[in-house]
Amino acid sequence: MFGEVVFDPFWLAKPFLHALDPEGAHELTLCALEANLVPWQPREDDPILATTLFGRPLTNPIGLAAGFDKDARVYERMGAQGFGFVEVGGVTPRAQTGNPRPRVFRLPEDGAVINRLGFPNAGAAAMEARLTRKGRPTIGFGINLASNADSADPADDFVHLARRFAPYADYLTLDVSCPNTANGQVFLDPARLADLLARLGAIDWGPQRPALVAKLSPDVADELVQRLIATLLAARIDGIIVANTTRERPAGLRSAHAREAGGLSGTPLATPSTALLARVRDLTAGAVLLIGVGGVAGGAEAYAKIRAGASVVQLYTGLIYEGTALVTRIKRELAALLRRDGFTSVAEAARAAAT
Ligand SMILES: Cc1cc2nc3c(=O)[nH]c(=O)nc-3n(C[C@H](O)[C@H](O)[C@H](O)COP(=O)(O)O)c2cc1C
After folding, report:
1. pLDDT score at 3
2. Which of 92, 97, 188, 238 has the fewest Cβ atoms nearer than 10 Å?
């Protein structure tokens, strides 16, 4: 009669966190996770959610998107928060401070965030030291790579990072779609992208070749999407993440910060990023694994991405508004949606989309 009543401490913490500036709140959250002070989410996953990511078994297909754990400080805590996999970074070869503050803005009325961080991070050596010390997490693991803002040869940065981090992860993401740095955009030129992929293809990986994944921008016109996908397919990329944040400002944004420069994430990105995902599914025809990200705020959005061809799904912005109880809710709702439509697994639903 009363339904399920679950006490979620995030709702006590949220007014305090949101009274802080977004970066301060984020730092506090990371500190709480590091100190293991964030209550765990239920770990037992519904068997219908079990799947694989580049050969690695996952108990569920919901991942933490890049940008939350830029310096690999808390990735090992993410299994206990309910995630099936986690992507750390973006990491650049050398430490950098990023753009001037303020550079992250909440858009609460829109369930969104705008950021123009520009990859502040402690650099590859600091990340590698943490990965060496802490080891792999119990869940799936990706590392998001990016070039330094002042790099003369951004492709060289990616090659360096890919070599360096190959032994540590299930997959490496090439963030070739960051809207907030000049170097984040150079690989939107298919010729530059082809050159980068050729240089990565020439690496002698030994026995530890990681899956390579490219992250797309939602802001490219369809003709360029086709050329970028053709370039990625020709280089036999293993996966594609759709999508990064958008420079677009959809009509109807209500928040005071809607006109801030930077990349928009969260609810307004759900429809365009899922539409692009479906387009990429059609262009790739099952040849690569697809990871759907953008505006996942419930099981419905996660399911929509799976039905548009995503094998797994990621999220970030939803956590800012709902905490990690969101992960538990998404999993419950997703399992119900899969059953409603007669699927017995996530992979089956994603495959059905591809045919
Ligand atoms: C504050 C912030 C920082 C981010 N940093 C990165 C990053 O370093 N590398 C990257 O590939 N994506 C980054 N992203 C993009 C997310 O990984 C994701 O693609 C995007 O936010 C859409 O998902 P969401 O709507 O669930 O947040 C960042 C997003 C936010 C909000």
Report:
1. 45
2. 97
